[in-house]
Amino acid sequence: MSSEEEESTGASEQESAEESASSNEPAESEAFSDISDDSDLFEVSAKQEKTWTTRQDLELQAIREIAADLRDHPLLPPDPDDPDQDFLLLHDGIKLPAAHCAFRGTGDTKIDGALS
Questions:
Q1: For the whole prediction, is pTM greater than 0.85?
Q2: CB of 72 within 8 A of CB of 49?
Q3: How far apart are CA 103 and CA 109, in angstroms?
Q4: Please, is 8 exposed, middle or buried when counting C-beta atoms within 10 Å of its C-beta (0-12, 13-18, 19+)?
Q5: pLDDT, tens digit (0-9, with 9 covering 90-100), for 43-68
Q6: Per-residue pLDDT tens for 97-106?
Q7: How far apart are the first and last CA of the chain?
Q8: HEC-encoded secondary structure of 30-85
Q9: CA-only gyration radius of the chain, Å
Q10: What angle do CA 96, 99, 105 make, to 5 degrees?
Q11: Partners of 86 in beta bridges
């Protein structure tokens, strides 16, 4: 076989490979068209009704229940006249208790080591 014949044979093989590749393209795209018809295949959404409870859900529930019982300003002592309210007269120079309870309805405070 001469070099010209080899080149022509190589060229014809390459052309036939390109033709077969181009003829496979529609078949491959048709194979993927079935997948694209399933549009909900790639849609993700949360379930409307939750049927399970995680440990984090239980912790959040406990936090919400505790937070509902805290006063608005839990770092301030309760008002001596109304333990459900916070003592907000901070500019009057009154000595604040060393410790206090942050929950509504409890007027527990600790002044100078004594619980009142």
A1: no
A2: no
A3: 12
A4: exposed
A5: 788 888 888 899 999 999 999 999 99
A6: 888 888 888 8
A7: 113
A8: HHHHHHHHCHHHHCCCCCCCCCCCCHHHHHHHHHHHHHHHECCCCCCCECCCCCCC
A9: 39
A10: 90
A11: 78
Pair of tokens at residue 84: 């459900």
Buried b (16+ CB within 10 A) or exposed e, 15-39: eeeeeeeeeeeeeeeeeeeeeeeee
Angle at 83 between CA 77 and CA 85, to 5 degrees: 75
Structure tokens at 27: 């078949």
Tokens describing residue 9: 């044979």
Residue-range domain boundaries for the chain: 3-39, 70-115
